[in-house]
Amino acid sequence: MPRLSAQTLYALRNYINIDRLITQLQIPTQPLNAMMRFQCPLCAHFHTATHPNTNLARCFDCRKNLNTIELVMAVHHTPFLKAVAWLQQYEKSLTDSSGTTQSQRVLPKRRATPNPNPLATHSTDGKAKPAQQPASKIATSNLITIKQILNKR
Question: Are 64 and 57 in contact (CB under 8 A)?
């Protein structure tokens, strides 16, 4: 398998909906107080939750957060690269014949490695300096789709 880019891994972890993935993996679920609880693949308890803002699954008994890759690894008992390959196939299955993702989710453009301050770059002496790109250009080029992210690798 070719080397995986940081951008590809970021997209797989953050842009595949964790709740949909739990359903696709056929992990048992139970409704509790208007929340969906899933069975933890590590300890088999239902003291769990998902967080839509972070796209993480949490088991409060194990005290573990699981991203999409870790969830596939735990359910399928598979190593990292096989889990990534499975998620890439799953992402392709979400794409219809017109080439657009079924979720129609528009995503913010991300750097290959997230920069804590996107408006700054670093000079050779390590000090932050203002970005040279004008704000108008940043505003017009900040949206892309999952398919575009994954096709750039």
Answer: no
